[in-house]
Amino acid sequence: MAEAAKALRPGLSFSDQLPAEFDVFYSSGTLQYLSDPEQLWREALSRTTRYAYLARNAFSNRKLFTVQSSRLFDNGAGPVPEGFDNIEIRYPHQTISEASLRGIADEMGFDLAARFESRNSGVIGTRADVYGADLLFKRRQADAG
Predict the structure, then answer these.
(1) pLDDT tens across 50-78, in order?
(2) Main-chain dihedrals φ then ψ at residue 91, nearest 5 degrees
(3) Most buried of the four, 57, 64, 81, 121, by CB within 10 Å?
(4) What phi and psi, each to the nearest 5 degrees, are found at residue 115?
(5) 83: Cβ–Cβ under 8 A, 6 or more apart, which residues?
């Protein structure tokens, strides 16, 4: 898929490593698909100099696991590329603790600058204990002298 995307948009590049430092960390609906989202969050914040934005999250006070399914190309723009089928794919999904992510951010020197209730949060189903929110964090300024 990465090679097909680069063929369609040659300016794209991909990496499975975080850069050494960046001004803004942005994640859209990604953390809930990782085996250890809190570890990646901590690592990302250690390299973020200014802001961190988490969009499209599925939060719950307890960890819930599901198997999500979708059509392969339902998450992208444009027609299905030649040579590909729009097959159904299935992948694990977990909810994340908002309190845990906020606590890690606080420990790492970030304040919650804004919180937005999210309609398109990656929340699966209608469980009352699962909710969506987008979170914007800002790194605290170093104490003056």
Answers:
(1) 999 999 888 988 888 888 788 878 766 67
(2) -155, 155
(3) 57
(4) -135, 130
(5) none
